[in-house]
Design brief:
It contains one helix and seven strands, in the order E-E-H-E-E-E-E-E. By secondary structure, it is mainly beta. The strands form two sheets. Strands 3, 4, 5, 6 and 7 form a five-stranded antiparallel β-sheet that branches. It has a two-stranded antiparallel sheet with strand order 1-2. The structure holds zinc ion. Zinc ion binds near residues 42, 44, 66, 67 and 69.
């Protein structure tokens, strides 16, 4: 079951969180989890989401809940 979370004051789903990280809407995304790390910019909580930008690619993305910082495992 997908759990929505709040990022930068907005509710996000796994797909819309991945879209924030990637800049494009992914084909599919897994549930959002808490990453075991802090944001290097503001020290805020970092969320983790796995998603498929294309049929042949799987990316793990990280996004701070409090600021614009985001990163992927590419
Ligand atoms: Zn941050």
């Amino acid at each position: 079951m997908a759990e929505n979370r709040v990022v930068e004051g907005r509710m996000v789903t796994p797909v819309t969180l991945a879209e924030l990280i990637e800049g494009d809407r992914p084909m599919d995304a897994e549930d959002i989890t808490d990453a075991d790390r802090e944001c290097p910019e503001c020290g805020g909580n970092v969320l983790e989401v796995g998603y498929m930008p294309s049929v042949t690619e799987f990316v793990t993305g990280y996004k701070c809940q409090g600021c614009e910082w985001a990163e992927t495992d590419r």
